[in-house]
Structures are given as C-alpha cells and as structure tokens.
C-alpha cells in the first residue's frame, strides 16, 4: 500500500519523512468528507488556528460596516 503524497501548508513542499508530518487542521469538502492539512513539524506552530481566522473575519466585517456607515 502506498501513502498519499503530503504537502506542507506553510512552505508548499513535499513532506518526505513521515515522522516530520503533522496534521494542522482539516478542510471541508464540498461534496464529501474533509481532508487533513499537513505541515512540517517545524512549520506547524506557524499555522493559524480556526479561531484566529474567525476572529479576523469578524473584525474585518466590523471595520467594513464602520467604514460604510460613515
């Protein structure tokens, strides 16, 4: 059995060493199950968390509404 090719989310390079691969999240599929997002062990800490992205989106909506109202 072959393993799936894994690419680092941070540097977009192949992860050749299975011990260096870390799951940093999941991405939802449009018509099927989610898939794992991988990164090199040294890059894993740099990946934004889902909560961080949601907070940034809320702040952007708030600032946009403020700009449109003035």
Task: Please provide a written account of the structure.
By secondary structure, this protein is an alpha+beta fold. The chain is built from one helix and two strands, in the order ββα. The chain has a two-stranded antiparallel sheet. It is elongated, with a radius of gyration of 17 Å. The mean pLDDT is about 85.
Summarize the structure.
The protein has 70 residues and is of the alpha+beta class.
Main sheet record: 2 strands, antiparallel
Mean pLDDT: 83
What structural category arises from helix and sheet content?
Answer: alpha+beta
The tally of helices reads 1
Order of helices and strands: EEH
Strand content: 15-25%
**Distance, first to last CA:** 61 Å
CA gyration radius, whole angstroms: 17 Å
Task: Tell me the total number of β-strands.
Answer: 2
Q: Share of helix among residues?
A: 25-40%
The coarse silhouette is elongated
Order of the strands making up the biggest sheet: 1-2
Indicate the low-confidence ranges by residue numbers.
none
What assembly state would you assign to the polypeptide chains in this entry?
single chain
Fill in the keyword field for this structure.
two-stranded antiparallel ribbon, alpha+beta, 70 residues, 1 helix, single chain, 2 strands
SSE diagram, text form:
Layout: E1 21-27, E2 35-40, H1 50-69
Antiparallel strand pairs: 1-2
